[in-house]
Amino acid sequence: MKNNNMPAWNLSDLYKSMDDPQINKDLETYRKSALKFAKDYKGRLKDLSAEEFLKAIKDIEKRSVIAGRLGGFAYLNMVTQMKNTKAVAFYQNIEEKLTDYYKPILFFSLEFNKIPQNIVNQWLKDDRITYYKYWINRIRKFKKYQLSEPEEQILLEKSLTSGEAWVRLYEESSSRLEFTVDGKKYNDAEISKLLLDKNSATRLKAGKEINRVYKQNGHLFTFIYNMVIKDKAVEDEKRGFKTPVSARNISENVSDESVEVLAQTVKKHYKDLAHRFYKLKAKWLGVKKINYWDRNAPLPFSEDTHYTWDEAVKIVLNAYKEFSPKLYKIAKDFFDNNWIDVPPRDGKRSGAFCSSPISTWHPYLMLNFAGKQNDVLTLAHELGHGCHHQLRTKNGELNEHSRMTSEEVASVFGEMIVFQSLLRNLKDDKAKLCLIASKVGDMINTAIRQIAFHFFETRAHNERKNGELSEERLSQIWVEEMRDSLGDYVVVDENSANIWSMVGHFFFLPFYVYAYSYADCFVNSLYKVSETGKVKNFADKYLDMLSKTALEDYDKILKPFGLNPNSVEFWEYGLSLISSYIDLLEKLDKKLK
C-alpha cells in the first residue's frame, strides 16, 4: 500500500535529532542533579520537615521528566529504523548513561521505606504532599520486597547486561527476520498482513513461512527466552516473590488469587466461546478444520474492503465523536499534530503501540497501516490508549503509573465503539455477519487466547526452575495450550509450533498478557452496562473513570457502574457479551443458509 497521506511522527518536540546539543546538556543536568540530591538527603530523610520533603519530591519529579524525555526520544527514534546501527547504538548509550547516573539516588526508596509511618502521616497533613500520596503509597507497597542498597545497585547495573540486554537482542533479531513467499521478500509486519489475504493458499504459505523462519532461529530465541526467565527468577527469589506472576500482580495492585480466578473462569469458557466460534468459521471457510493461520482469515463471502488512511481516520473520529464530543476533541489532537507514525517500512518495528515517555506530556502512536479493516480497529485501539493518557496528565509525573490491567481498557473500549458504529451503518445481513465474526475473532484473541498465553508463560516459568527448557519442550507446551483453548476445529501442529517465540510480550514484559483478557472482560462489562441505559451520563462517567485508573482501586472506580471486579460474576458478565455475539452469528448463519 502506498504511503500517500500517511503521517510520520515528528519527535522534535523532544529533541531535534540524535545530534541535538540539548541531549548532552540534559544528561549532564540529570547526572549533577542526582549527585546533589544524594549529598543533600542521603541518611537524613527521616529528619526532614514537610517543607524539605516536598522540595525533595520536586527534585525527583524534575529528574523523572528529564529521564522520560531522553529515554523516550532514544526509543521512539530507534523503533522506526531498527536497521540503523547509529540509532540502535544511540538508544543503548542513553539507557546506559541514565542507569549509571541514577545510581546515586537509588537510596531514596530504600531509606524512605525505613521511615516510621507516623512520620509519613505527619508529612501527609500538608496538602502539597498529600497530592503525591498515590506515589508514596506505591513506594511503600514494595517495602517488603526491597533489598539492601548494595544489592539494589548490583541489580540495577547488571540489568543492562542481563534482562534488558536479552530483550534488546530479541527485538533486534526479530526485526531483522526476512520471509519469502512466492519469491517476494517481506519483513515481519508485512508478512503478517498476508495472513488476512482472502486466498487460502497465500495464507497457508505465509503461515508456514513465518513458522519456518522462527524455527530456523529457534535455537537463538529459545536461549534468549531461557535467559529472560532465569534472570527474572533470580531477582524474584532474592526479593521474596511467591510465584513468577507475583511481581506483576503487585505492580498491578491485584492479588494472585484474583488473577487466578480470571484465568480459570476464562478457561472454563473455552468450549462455549472459542470452540463454538471456530466450528462456525470452519463451516464458513468450507473445511472440516481451519489451519492455525486461518483464525483471523476474512470470510470468503466478505467484501475485500480497503481503506485509505483518510477514510480510516474519519471512521474512527466520527465514532469517537458519536460516543463523546469530549473524547473526539482529545483524539483529534493526534491528527492535527505529528504525534503518530503510520506507514510500514523496512526496519520499522512490527505491530502497533502508544508510548508515553512523560506522564504530563502528550504520547506518541505507532502503527503499521495497510488499509485492512483490522487496521481501522487497530487505529481505534491505539488512539484509545492515547486519549486515556491525555485524560491523566493532570495527575502529575510521579502519581501516574501504568497498570497494565487498566492500560488496555480505553484501547479495547475504543475498538468497541468503532465496531458498533460500523455495525450500525450496515444494512446487509451478510455484511453484518462478516463484521461481527471479525469482532468475535478479535475478542477471542484478546479474552481467550491471551489467557492461553498466560498458561504457557506460567508453565514455562515453573518448569524452568528445574533447568533450561529445550526448543522442543517450549513448542510442546505451546501446542498443548493452543489446542486446549482453540478446540478441535483448529489445526495446531508442527506448522505453528514455534510461534511462541513470535510473542514479544513473553520476552520484554513477562506476564503482561493476562492484562488483555482482564481489560476485555472489564470493557465488555462496562459496555453491557452502557447498553442498559441505567447509568445516566455514562460517557462522562467513563471518561472520569479513565482519569483515575492509575490512582484508585478497581472496586472504587467501577462503583458508579454497579460492577464488582472482585467477583466471579464480573468476569462471567464480560464473557457473556462474546457469547451473545456468537448467538447472533448462529442466527444470522441460519437466516442466510
What's the topology here?
Layout (H helix, E strand, L loop, with lengths): L20 H21 L8 H30 L5 H18 L4 H6 L4 H7 L3 H4 L2 H9 L7 H11 L3 H13 L3 E3 L2 E3 L1 H7 L5 H17 L1 H22 L6 H7 L3 H13 L2 H15 L4 E2 L17 H15 L1 H12 L3 E2 L11 E3 L8 E3 L6 H18 L13 H21 L4 H36 L6 H16 L3 E2 L13 H4 L5 H19 L5 H9 L7 H4 L10 H25 L1
Helix pairs in contact: 1-2, 1-3, 2-3, 9-12, 10-11, 14-26, 15-20, 15-26, 16-17, 16-18, 16-19, 17-18, 18-19, 19-23, 20-21, 20-23, 20-26, 23-26
The helicity comes to: 55-70%
Report the sheet with the most strands, covering strand number, pairing sense and barrel closure: 3 strands, mixed
- Ranges where pLDDT stays below 50 over 5 or more residues in a row are none
Number of strands: 7
SS-derived structural category: mainly alpha
DSSP summary: helix tally: 26
- What's the shape? globular
Outline of the structure:
By secondary structure, the protein is mostly helical. The protein has 26 helices and seven strands.
Characterization of the model:
The chain is mainly α and 593 residues long. Helices cover 64% and strands 3% of the residues. The protein contains 26 helices and seven strands. A three-stranded mixed sheet has the order 4-6-5, with helices on one face. Strands 1-2 form a two-stranded antiparallel sheet. A hairpin with an 8-residue loop joins strand 5 (353-355) and strand 6. Helix 17 crosses helix 18 (373-390). The mean pLDDT is 93.
